[in-house]
Amino acid sequence: MSRGLVIAGLVILGIVVVTATQALYTVRETHQAIVLQFGDFKRTVREPGLHIKTPFVQNVIYMDKRVLSLDLAPQEVIASDERRLVVDALVRFRIADPLEFYKTVQGSEVIARNRLATTVQANLRAALARATFATLLTEERAGLMAQIRDQVATAIEPLGMEIIDVRIKRADLPPEISQAVFNRMQRNYNEQAAERRASGQEEAQRIRADADRERAIILAEANRDSQITRGEGDSEAVRIFAEAFGRDVDFFEFYRTMQAYQQTVGSDDTTLVLSPDSEFFKFLRRLEN
User: Fold this and answer.
1) 105 Cβ contact partners less than 8 Å away, ≥ 6 residues apart
2) Would you list the DSSP string of 31-87?
3) Which of 48, 106, 119, 146 has the most neighbouring CB atoms within 10 Å?
């Protein structure tokens, strides 16, 4: 085989390989594509796999088919109740119409994200301007999010994109306002604590006063009862002594004299100066006799 034939064969093989390379293209599962011929749209390819196009004439533009996320930077908005809020939102979307997407943003996801961010921020600011801060803290928040999603979907549909969801991740007061609110809440709680503490002390004093008054009443009643009991005991003793005195006068006189001896001379430090013939010692003289 001559050298010229070998070279010709290699050239032909190279042309076949290049032509095959230009004629075949692969679409991944996560992508979709549009085929253009000299800039004119020919078809949309959504099925993954190996596909054929006219070589050197047609070119393929790939686009993502998955659900994409756009995390918006925090922005400050003013609610209808004049509350300043810092809102952080998240958008989930996908490319629904590859041709319109290519026509409007040249198939650039970066341009599409910028357009989408601007649209979402504008609608979010307008919607929150008609809502109150309390709306974001109640069940009405879901309805507000649905309203914003529908408005963004309508505005973004000409770009060939579909809005899946719009969510407010966070809605906080600005730092300086949050600190002021915290300080005000702290003052309110301190005032409430002081008020409750004063109320508790007042209640404690009232209970203590009631307890002291009840204690005084109980002691007075007990002292009264003891005096009555003591008086009754003394009366009974007098009655018994009187009855005993009536039965045996001499014994009663002797008993009372012995008690007097015990109380007067029963102690070592007692000194009595009496006449020997005193009536006080009459029973002692009888013992001597």
Assistant:
1) 111, 112, 115, 159
2) EEEEEEETTEEEEEE-S-EEEE--TTTEEEEEEE-S-EEEEPPPEEEE-TTS-EEEE
3) 119
CA distance 86 to 57: 52
Number of domains observed in the structure of the chain: 3
Backbone angles phi, psi at 197, to 5 degrees: -65, -45
Tell which of 173, 198, 222 closes a domain: 173
* Cα distance between residue 172 and residue 133, in whole Å: 9
pLDDT in tens, 151-168: 999 999 999 999 999 988
What is the per-residue pLDDT across 12-22, written as a single tens digit (0 to 9) for each?
766 666 666 77
76 and 43 housed in the same domain: no
The total number of residues written for the chain in this structure? 289
Residue 38's domain comprises: 3-64
75-104 in b/e form (b: 16+ CB < 10 A) is eebebeeebebbbebebebebebbbebbeb
Query: In Å, how far are 111, 116, 117, 118, 129 from 122, measured between CA atoms?
Result: 17, 10, 9, 6, 11
